[in-house]
Design goal:
The complex is a heterodimer of chains A (78) and B (252). Chain A is an all-alpha fold. Chain A has five helices and no strands. Chain B is flat. The chains are: A mainly alpha (78), B mainly alpha (252). At the A-B interface, helix 4 and helix 5 of A face helix 1 and helix 2 of B.
Chain lengths: 78, 252
């Protein structure tokens, strides 16, 4: 787990969203992870940016993605 | 959060607003408005604390903010709006401070990003001061960019217009503006109208007997506009081609 937290997980996740791959499981896991404080502000921004692009391009109805966006925004506003 | 990150957040909010525009959700609109205002206030706070913020960041933040504000106003029918007065004033200070390091393109982009005429005048004053102190090199401006500058000077600092007229005259005489042919005629026309309205080119006086270089250049550009030799050749070629076709048909 510490190894996992040390690595910047936001980069591969952002790459997946850029490739328009947002599997439900990935979104679910990210939703859980976003509640934890493993993401720094820079990483939040990276994910926020790519996830926004992903939701706009795929036109998915706001669900878990919306919760993730809200959580990241809250973190950035602190 | 630093200035670049706030600018990035504004760009994200701008994108989000586009999807809110599609869904027509009032709640979401309010959330985006509140978030934008929060980050704008933070940017203002950041600028007041440190002045070493890059003008490019300020420029992009202004651009995103303008887009966001326009969309919010449009969607809420003018009921909601972001308060950008402090941000505009602070970004004006940043631009004023960094005028000497900017290239002409960035200079005009920064000048156009601000709507408030008094702030625009402040930037113009700073540009003029930097030009006078030779911190800003006027030789970096092409004739086309000079047209734009002259336009702004006429609006905000009309007393300095004569300096520009003389500079353009001298530049044309010494052959400094070699890209003359590529110049857009409309801009030249605008500058000509401006100078003639302000009395630099008069109808009765010396222009007829001893025309200035600018006057001659404008006349030649006008001639090209009215009687474009290349277009005429094309027309003649078309007529000749049509005639040849007729001849061929008759012979057949």
């Amino acid at each position: 787990m510490p190894q996992f937290l040390k690595a910047d997980i936001s980069i591969p996740l952002a790459s997946l969203f850029k490739l328009k791959y947002g599997a439900t499981e990935v979104i679910k896991e990210l939703n859980k992870m976003s509640m934890l404080s493993i993401f720094k502000k820079e990483q939040c921004l990276r994910l926020l940016d790519t996830l926004t692009d992903y939701t706009i391009s795929t036109g998915v109805p706001p669900g878990a993605e919306r919760d993730i966006l809200d959580t990241f925004f809250e973190k950035l506003m602190l | 959060m630093d200035d670049r990150n706030i600018c990035r957040v504004l760009s994200i909010l701008n994108k989000q607003l586009k999807s809110v525009e599609r869904s027509h959700s009032n709640d979401e609109l309010q959330i985006v408005t509140q978030r934008t205002q929060h980050f704008v206030d933070r940017f203002v706070d950041l600028i007041t604390r440190r002045m070493d913020i890059d003008y490019a960041t300020v420029f992009w933040a202004n651009r995103f903010l303008r887009d966001i504000n326009n969309t919010i106003k449009e969607m809420s029918h003018g009921n909601h709006e972001i308060d950008t007065r402090a941000f505009s004033a602070q970004s004006c200070y940043i631009v004023q401070d960094q005028v000497s390091t900017m290239n002409p393109r960035a200079l005009f982009a920064s000048l156009n990003m601000i709507d408030d005429p008094s702030l625009k005048k402040r930037i113009m004053d700073s540009i003029m001061d930097n030009l006078k102190q030779k911190k800003l090199n006027i030789r970096k401006f092409s004739l086309e960019q000079l047209c734009e500058l002259v336009d702004a000077v006429a609006e905000h600092r009309p007393e300095d217009l004569s300096v520009f007229y003389e500079y353009i005259e001298t530049g044309l005489e010494s052959g400094f503006f070699k890209n003359m042919r590529r110049l857009e005629f409309k801009k030249l026309q605008k500058m000509f109208c401006l100078f003639s309205d302000r009395g630099f080119i008069s109808r009765q006086g010396a222009e007829v007997e001893n025309p200035s270089k600018f006057y001659t250049v404008f006349l030649l550009a006008l001639k090209d506009q009215l009687f474009d030799p290349t277009k005429k050749d094309e027309r003649i070629a078309k007529v000749e081609a049509a005639r040849n076709k007729k001849h061929v048909k008759r012979n057949v």
